[in-house]
Structures are given as structure tokens and as C-alpha cells.
Amino acid sequence: MAPWLTDWRGRYTGRAAALVSPANTQEVAEVIRRAARHRIAIVPQGGNSGMVAGATPDASGDQIILSLRRMDGIIEFDTDSGLVHCQAGVILQNLHDAAATKGRRFPLTLGGKGSATIGGLISTNAGGTQVLRHGTMRHLVAGVEAVLPDGSIYDGLSPLKKDNRGYDLKHLLIGGEGTIGIVTSAIVQTVPALVDRCVVWVGVESPEHAYRLLLFMQTRARERLEGFEILPQRALNAVVKHIAGTRAPLETEHSWHVLMELVQDDPNQSAPATLATNLLEQAIEAAMIENATLASSEAQAEAFWKIRDSIAEAERAEGPALQHDISVPVAAMSRFIIQESPVIEQKWPGTKTVAFGHLGDGNIHFHVKAPVGVDTVQWYATDGKVITSHIYDRVVAYAGSLSAEHGIGQSKIAEFARLSDPTRISALQAIKNAFDPLGIMNPGKLVPLAQMPMSA
Asked: Which parts of the chain span the membrane according to its record (predicted)?
């Protein structure tokens, strides 16, 4: 079980009494019924690629891991509606590949697409690089099937456009991190395959220039703009240093970089490369950008995206760092990066900030690298905690969120409880208590436990 007891980042390691891997929904239900009978806590797990230790058991050794990895079948693909019924253990990349064979695509992607599962993506309401146009996982799920804490099976798979029968259980389960039920299968929405795309790499002076470019592109090409990512030169340097086969897209060095993707999914639309060229010429004249290049082939387009998708891996190779998945209003994001980054580096000498990610939807991954030579465990426990609290305090001051797309898990639960409106916490606890009165479903994740019943 060792590989399944530690989270992807290597920050949390737990123990488990067993790992069970059911093959279908009925077996999941039977496992949960027995666990409820004996008051055994269950930790659901998909690809174990989460960022907040939401699928890692605690240190007691009393919990069991329930892995959905064997439930990896695509049950039905309706090419007319574009709806796909798949089990929770389907790997995202496999869904992409299956959709491609039908002339469709599933418009959610992220760096961990080779290991992330559909169930995990639903349970954390994952985002990724295409949220700007298509929304988070919540917007792409038309129906879910789940096993509830008493072992009963909730069938919400009918993809109704209108359903006014009270509380929407589907939306409680999406983003619920397995705390009120385990998603076993889902109906997800695909979209037509692209006719063409143009991936653009741009060098800019500052995050403010990147924000101005975003507004410019949205005004002129909102329905064609599918991705808009920002990263600093130091993130690009780390990728080129640690990730084989990568190189800087521009010959010139810039303080900040923007990665954009313009798409064509209708034959009647203009070619995205033509659109991009015209808009970039205007942006240069308006002094928004310093340099730019268009990917000349699909291979080069993938190479540009590989840089963005490899930042987390490269940063991990660089050494210990604190990772913060935050969001603030889009209009405030550039100001947050510009104003808050130097404050941290000044207050904690030796640290370096790296802010990158989805500027288009206000979600930035704000990393703080540890000073060279520190004792990692001690730094995480001392300065690391203080820095994290400082960052989340600043996020709240900007009317933001301490979790944009990765969830709360166990790594953020204390700060979530500290900073959240008591009304929000009370509502979450009430929902958790109502669904899971025994407290056996992924305890210690998402919902602060102050008012939760004790589980054996």
C-alpha cells in the first residue's frame, strides 16, 4: 500500500488498515455498508494526484482506502449529444483519447491528465487551463451516480436540462471531496473537436501588461480565446533546467510570459493564426507586449503547453516550496502579484515567490520557495506556516479564496476554518452531519471537525 499512503507532493503520509479496490458500484456500496456497520472511516482515492492531501489517510492506521482505480470503463458515448457516461476511475487522458476517436473533445485539461481520474476531478471540482471558456468541472458534469454514507446508491445520471425537485445533490457531491458520498460514475459533456488552433507565446513587461492584454483579447476574441496563462521568467528557467526536451520559446528574455490559445471549432470562422497575427500586431502597437511567437506546428504548440504543464514538476525539482492555489477577482490579480510578492521576500529573507497560472479566471498558483540550505521539515513547521497564514490573510483582504481549484483536503482545513465566515462553516457541518452522521466519510478533510461526531 505504500504508494497510496503518501500524497502527490510528499508532504503527508498516513497509515491504513487496508486498501479495497471494488470493481463496480454495487461493490462500493457493500464496502460502505460494512464500514458503517463497524464504524470504519473510509478515504476515497482516485489517481492520488491531488494537491491538498484529500485522499491521504490519517496516521491512526484505522482508516481504509477505497480506490476507484479499477472502475475505469467508458460505458456509453452518445455522439449526437456529446454526452459520455464513464466510471469514476477513468483517467482524464483516456477520456481525451476516447473523445478524439468520436470527433469530440473533453474541454478540461491539466498537467496531471495522465493520472487524474474523473471521479477525483468531480470530487475536487477541478479547473485547469480551459476554464476561461468552458468553466470548471462543475459546468461539464451533467449527471452523477454516487454511494452515500449508509451504502445507498444515488442515481442522478439523467442529464436533465431542467430539474426543479429541490436541493441539487449533484452539486453537493461535486467539490465535496468524498465527505458526503463517493462518486462512482458520471455523465460528462464533450464539445466538438477543434478545426484548428493557434498557440501563442508572448513576452510582457509585467503582470499588469498581461492583464491589459487579457482585456484586449477578450474584447476582440472572447469566444475564440480558450487559454490565457501567465508565468514569470524564473518559472520558465526552472522548466528548461529540469524538464528534458524543453526550451524557451522566445530568443529574448522577459520578466513575464503569457501563453494564449485561440481556437476554431466552426469551419466558417477565420483561421486562428490569422486572428492571432492581427491582434498581436495591434497589441504591439499599443505597447502591451514586448515580443511574441506563434507555434508553427502542432508539435510546437504541444511544446509550449508542456512548459506550462511542467512548472509544478520543475518547481518540485528546484527544492522545497509552499504551494498556494488562490484566487482573487481577475481585475485584482496583477496587483496582488506585484504588491504582495516583494513583501514576502523582504519579510522572509532568502525566499523566492513564483506566481503562475490562470490569469484569465483569477486563479494563480502562488509558490514560495524555501531559502537555500534550510531544514525542510523545520521550515515547513515554522516559517512555512507563518508565510502561508500571511498569504491567506492577504487573499482574504483582496476578497479572494484560499482554494481556487484544488480543494481543501487536510492541508488547508485549519486555515479554512480560521478565515471562513462562521455561517459558511456551520452550513458545511450541517450538511456533513445530515449525510454522514457517523462521520466515516473522509474525515478530517474539507469540513472542520469542531462539531462533528467522533468516529471509531
From this structure: none
Q: What is the mean pLDDT of residues 266-288?
A: 96
Nearest alpha carbon to residue 126 among 325, 336, 422, 391: 325
**Alpha-carbon torsion 413, 414, 420, 425, what sign?**
positive
Mean of the per-residue pLDDT values for the chain? 95
Q: 188 and 81: one domain? A: yes
> What's the grid cell of residue 90?
477513468
Q: Which domain holds residue 63?
A: 2-67
Residue 53 lies in a domain: yes
d(CA 358, CA 271): 24
Q: How far is CA 154 from the centre of its chain?
A: 25
- Based on the fold, state whether residues 301 and 332 are members of the same structural domain: no
Radius of gyration of the chain (CA): 22
Global confidence as pTM: 0.90
Q: Up-side HSE of residue 72: CA atoms within 13 Å toward CB?
A: 16
Percent of the chain at pLDDT exceeding 90: 92
Number of domains the chain contains: 4
